[in-house]
Amino acid sequence: VVLPFPPVPEGGAASRCALGLLRGLEARGTSFRVLAADMGSASPEAPPSDLPVEVMGIQWPSRGQARAERVLSPNSLLSRGPFAERVKQLAAEADVVHLVDSRTAGVAGQIDRPAVVQLDCVTLRDRKLEAPWHEEGRITIELLRSERRACKSARWLLASSPEVQRPLAVSWPHAHVAVAPLALDLANYRP
């Protein structure tokens, strides 16, 4: 499992859902390893020590490099450099690679194992496409380009709901699109 963030109980919603996914895999006896990118997360919390999670710090590009990346290949930071190399090393030992989010999907074409790309939202379902001279418009275009890059080469897509699955299946008929609802680790939500 490749994550663009560390899976921690007090992290954001995506982090907590990733933790639920890992707990579900563990409960079903599935053998797995996790590589999580830490792009300067605000949470000082470490992933649970009983899970096989390797957190790798990511060096942010310079301001100029970041701007160029946003234009040329948005959200592709994790698809190159030491993080991508580590994904390739770990993938060599895996049967399937689960890439969570379009930020990790860029490595799919670099590994020689089946890979599933998990998307929890569809950009144009959640955002309005505005003119690029508005910041919201630029962000939407970057997210859309990143999502399209992730889906274009994916053979298997995993959607978080039927509402996400339907537009993915229509837009990307070459891919098998399955639905797996987001999970939560119930141990963190006891009364």
Any overview of this molecule?
With 191 residues, the chain is an alpha/beta fold. Helices cover 38% and strands 15% of the residues. It has helices at 13-27, 63-72, 81-91, 102-105, 123-126, 135-152, 162-171; strands at residues 2-3, 34-38, 53-57, 97-100, 115-119, 156-159, 176-179. The strands form two sheets. It has a four-stranded parallel β-sheet. Strands 1-2-3 form a three-stranded parallel β-sheet, covered by helices on one side. β6 (156-159), α7 and β7 (176-179) form a beta-alpha-beta unit. The longest helix is centred in the last third of the chain and has 18 residues, at 135-152. It is globular and about 45 Å long. The model has no long low-confidence stretch (mean pLDDT 89).
| Overall pLDDT level | 89
- Which geometry do the CA atoms define? globular
State Rg.
Answer: 16 Å
What is the strand arrangement across the widest sheet? Answer: 4-5-6-7
Percentage of residues in helical conformation? 25-40%
Structural class: alpha/beta
**Approximate strand percentage:** 15-25%
Oligomer: single chain
Termini Cα gap: 30 Å
Order of helices and strands: EHEEHHEHEHHEHE
Overall strand count? 7
Number of helices: 7
What characterizes the major β-sheet?
4 strands, parallel
Q: Uncertain spans, ≥5 residues at pLDDT below 50?
A: none
Short description:
By secondary structure, the protein is an alpha/beta fold.
Annotate the secondary structure layout:
Elements: E1 2-3, H1 13-27, E2 34-38, E3 53-57, H2 63-72, H3 81-91, E4 97-100, H4 102-105, E5 115-119, H5 123-126, H6 135-152, E6 156-159, H7 162-171, E7 176-179
Parallel strand pairs: 1-2, 2-3, 4-5, 5-6, 6-7
